[in-house]
From TrEMBL:
Organism taxonomic ancestry: Bacteria, Bacillati, Actinomycetota, Actinomycetes, Micrococcales
Provenance organism: Cellulomonas wangleii
Protein's UniProt name: Zinc-dependent alcohol dehydrogenase family protein
Alphabetically ordered keywords of this record: Metal-binding, Oxidoreductase, Zinc
Named cofactor requirement(s): Zn(2+)
Keyword Metal-binding belongs to the record: yes
Record-annotated Enoyl reductase (ER) domain positions: 10-337
CDD domains: FDH_like_ADH3
Similarity-based family: Belongs to the zinc-containing alcohol dehydrogenase family.
């Protein structure tokens, strides 16, 4: 089969790789229909994280082609969506809704889903089948559920977005934009997208943003306070992962409010006193996407939401190197690879 490999920073190739087989009795093998390039794939691409001949990809939708002897619920021929962590679905952590911290979790990035086929560990706990074979136009949205939608949704839930709330969203990448969508779906009254890019501001408005704040840092915090009677937002989604974005999120939150942070933290160090006197709740980390998948698939299937709109470039798997370049050079927000 064909698969994407990152040989070293900046060097992505599509090569032949041995087709995956069932290794554990709880595995499934899927034929991948579509996969995508994640913002987090850019960290090794840019040499910020070490990389040496790594199989790439952790987002996926596809059709089950084989299941192990202990797989009970997932069946050959089903169209499935899974999260970027495989999880057993049975341990105490999974049952409490934190499948991304499952005691048996397997990061799908260690398997590599930018490929024609992928082995899915713990298939029954990991995969959710759609009601049938999806129409082609639903595939991008179902793929978004695999990571960026599930992550934006968790951030909005962690920030306690809901009716009567004012929600601010720090970050206008795919996760931030879908955090806007999630906040509105969860019933937030006002959703303030923090973005300085006209095209992303427009998409944020279409996804449910009621206001836009262009400033960053302290100026961004001051503008959020201006819009909220000096108090700050009830709920803030943080979808970047830098020192500036975390402090912008904490500063934009009112005392007693909630920050949902899902930007993968790089070089963030929180000042204790500022945190102490802020009086805000902080909750986040790698999103337990699996918790939300049945609900998200239903909303996509019913055409209530269209999160696939965050994909602004579609290429074939063979064109993966161009996809990485486009994201690295910010010519694309999120690249879908058809397989
Ligand atoms: Zn578990």
């Amino acid at each position: 089969m064909r698969a994407v490999v990152m040989e070293r920073p900046g060097e992505v190739r599509v090569v032949d790789r041995e087709q995956p087989r069932i290794e554990e009795p709880t595995d499934a093998v899927i034929e991948v229909t579509a996969t995508c390039i994640c913002g987090s794939d850019l960290w090794p691409y840019r040499g910020i994280e070490a990389v040496d001949h790594a199989w790439m990809g952790h987002e996926y939708v596809g059709v089950v082609r084989e299941v192990g002897p202990q797989v009970r619920d997932v069946r050959v021929g089903q169209f499935v969506v899974g999260s970027f962590f495989a999880s057993d679905g049975t341990c105490e952590i999974c049952r409490s809704g934190y499948q991304s911290h499952c005691v048996q979790r397997v990061p799908m990035g260690s398997i590599g889903t930018q490929a024609q086929y992928a082995r899915i560990p713990l298939a029954d706990g990991t995969l959710v089948a759609t009601p049938g074979m999806p129409d082609a136009d639903l595939v991008p949205s179902l793929l978004a559920a695999s990571d960026v939608l599930g992550t934006g949704w968790f951030a909005a839930v962690a920030a306690e977005a809901g009716p009567g709330k004012t929600v601010a969203v720090v970050g206008d990448g795919a996760v931030g934009l879908l955090g806007v969508l999630a906040a509105r779906q969860l019933g937030a009254e006002r959703v303030i997208a923090m973005s300085r890019h006209a095209d992303r501001q427009a998409l944020a408005r279409e996804l449910g943003a009621t206001e836009i704040v262009e400033e960053r840092g302290d100026a961004g915090v001051a503008h959020i306070k201006d819009l909220t009677d000096g108090l700050g937002a009830h709920s803030v989604v943080e979808a970047v992962g830098t020192q500036e974005s975390m402090m912008q999120a904490i500063g934009s939150t009112r005392p007693g409010g909630h920050v949902g942070y899902v930007g993968v933290s790089h070089g963030v160090s929180l000042p204790g006193q500022e945190l102490f006197f802020s009086g805000v709740h902080l909750h986040g980390g790698p999103a337990p996407v699996r918790r939300f998948l049945p609900d998200l698939i239903r909303r996509i299937w019913d055409r209530t939401i269209d999160p696939g709109r965050v994909f602004d470039l579609t290429l074939s798997l063979e064109q993966a190197a161009e996809g990485y370049r486009a994201m690295d050079e910010r010519r694309a927000t999120k690249v879908l690879l058809t397989v």
